[in-house]
Amino acid sequence: MTIDQVDLAIPxxxxxxxxxxxxxGAGPALVYFHPADxxxxxxxxLDLAERYTVYAPHFPGTAPGDPYAIHxxxxxxxxxxxxxxxxxxxxxxxxxxxxxxFGGMMAAELAATFPGMFERMVLLDPIGLWNxxxxxxxxxxxxxxxxxxxxxxxxxxxxxxxxxxxxxDHEEMIESLxxxxxxxGCTARFIWxxxxxxxxxxxxxxxxxxxxxxxxxxxxxxxxxxDDFVAGIPRSSKxxxxxxxxIPQVERRLELHAAIAPFLG
Amino acid sequence: MKVxxxxxxxxxxxxxxxxxxxxxxxxxxxxxxxxSTIYDSYRDFMDELVHAARCxxxxxxxxxHGQSSYDMMPNPSLIAATLAYLTEVExxxxxxxxxGRSLGKSREPVRVAEEMAVVDVMxxxxxxxxxxxxxxxxxxxxxxVAPIESRERFKEHxxxxxxxxxDSEPFAWNGTYSQYPxxxxxxxxxxxxxxxxxxxxxxxxxxxxxxxxxxxxxNYFGWFGLKMTGRQVFDRxxxxxxxxxVARNPFRMSFMQIIGVADTDDEARRLxxxxxxxxxxxxxxxxxxxxxSLPGATDINGVRAMLRDSSDDGLFAxxxxxxxxxxxxxxxxxxxxxxxxxxxxxxxxxxxxxxxxLAMLNFGSLPRELAMNNIQLFADEVLPHxxxxxxxxxxxxxxxxxxxxxxPRQPTAATLAARS
Lengths: 265, 420
Description:
The complex is a heterodimer.
Chain A (H helix, E strand, L loop, with lengths): L4 E8 L4 E9 L3 E5 L9 H9 L1 E5 L18 H14 L6 E5 L1 H12 L7 E4 L22 H5 L6 H7 L5 H19 L21 E6 L8 H9 L3 E6 L6 H4 L1 H12 L1
Parallel strand pairs in A: 3-4, 3-5, 5-6, 6-7, 7-8
Antiparallel strand pairs in A: 1-2, 2-4
Chain B lengths: L1 E6 L10 H4 L13 H21 L3 E4 L13 H15 L4 E4 L10 H14 L6 E2 L5 H7 L7 H17 L4 E4 L4 E5 L13 E5 L3 H9 L3 E5 L4 H19 L8 E9 L3 H18 L6 H4 L7 H9 L15 H7 L2 E4 L1 H15 L3 E5 L7 H14 L1 H4 L26 H5 L3
Parallel strand pairs in B: 1-2, 1-11, 2-3, 4-7, 7-8, 8-9, 9-10, 9-11
Antiparallel strand pairs in B: 5-6
Helix pairs in contact in B: 2-3, 2-14, 3-4, 4-6, 7-8
Pfam families (chain A): Abhydrolase_1
InterPro entries (chain A): AB_hydrolase_1, AB_hydrolase_fold, AB_hydrolase_sf
GO cellular component, one term (chain A): membrane
């Protein structure tokens, strides 16, 4: 099945920048918040697009061809406001939200800042909290060679290898590596040096029913944070996926669908 | 030609297999040290700087690195202040050159301006100020600056420091990275219009262009292997000078090289080889590449350029296991008899248009006596032969303190505009 994909550039923050939004699929609106290395259309996103119209806002600076948009914003607060403007400009009314890792934090920040903005929210191994007893790994300063073992319970599965693979073509590889590097740099800007910017003190404002999903073997952002999110968000519950690392949508895609389907209805 | 002594406060007694187990910065276990070897490393470092000042070097230069075993230098102003007073008391006409004050790292830029102004006053106007963006690990891991902000912070802070030195009236500063209701530092520098400023770069054309347009000097380090990188890096700089429309004045360019001098070439190799290997394997070689360029610290186009052509890195990727022969061949070090050393250095300076040489004469595990002898021998047998290299040049040295023979010039509208 072919899924139409449209890239939109929505002026935001008084025209200071465009927020690029990829739209794909058909059905009720779902906003997908990508992880730190930028938005990629992966099989999970394609699955969602079969049931929803997926809107994926690109964090400033991470959209292809517009790297310096990151310099148009100065704080996480400004990005949250710009995202709200864009979702409003798109005419989305109480969409579903799904956020992975860094994107989970962005979804939670929006839901805490604008209670009721989302009908339902799924957070996949979100960052945003900090506990000295189980710190979040600073992936921006981690050797690339160490990343597979931090991202996956089993980095040797075909799905994991496919995500980690680089393009064979040299120019495409340069483009892929430089974009990922820059995207990680852009998203790191407002979670540096520790990804705790006060979200814990804002979680109580979230009124959206929330499902927190975590890979049981997440070595990047430990599963213990699932309980912290559930304790903080009033109408929330959790699902823990066994034999799964930081990216359930890649490592345990079918189990993830089974976990979120009853919640999303 | 100005020839300065350059030094880092290295810990000299790391174990033989150090680089196989540890990084030389950020996470280096302090349990590897003893108080007495820390003291000795530091005492000798200070004594060597003073010795160089007394031996007739034109300047003494130090860098800044926090949480580092190869340069235990969280704030070079401390060393510069000590040297400023001591050399003033002794009447030594030597420039005090804290060349590494990282403004991409700094969270208190006005304090930097204040500290440097104090050094200029204490030295009677002999300060030269070096301002690098700062190493990525130092700015971002040691001092918590988001990598993508380090270069923008550097530019804003540099503009603030210069204005704090030069403006006669108090001013408010409403910056992106700092705000001050009133900037009016006491003391201001003695030098007018301000102390000479150098930027340090590894080959990034953005930094080169900035230094040329704003009329700063430029530092380049030979650690990566001058015979591998020199041609392209210096050509890039002088081509940019042509593009910007400024003269190819060699005094704009400052170059740092590790140097070992002994009576003969064989003796120099015998004395210095293992200490040079110590430096490259346990200092530079024990910094992972990603820590020198954390994501965001290098512009996306710079990352693309580096992925296409990493030749500016020279020998960096092999540093952890590098041998002395490789270091010599790549030009990472200049080691030999006085004749060998002066010929090689003179050749570099004339070929690449270098008007300021920074001689790193203590490096790695070099023990005190060897370092002291190296400084003395260089001062006696090499330095006098280099000093006259540019005597016939039509150019004046605009990037050196006036009290020490420099010819500082006033900023123009164009150079002021290029500051930020």
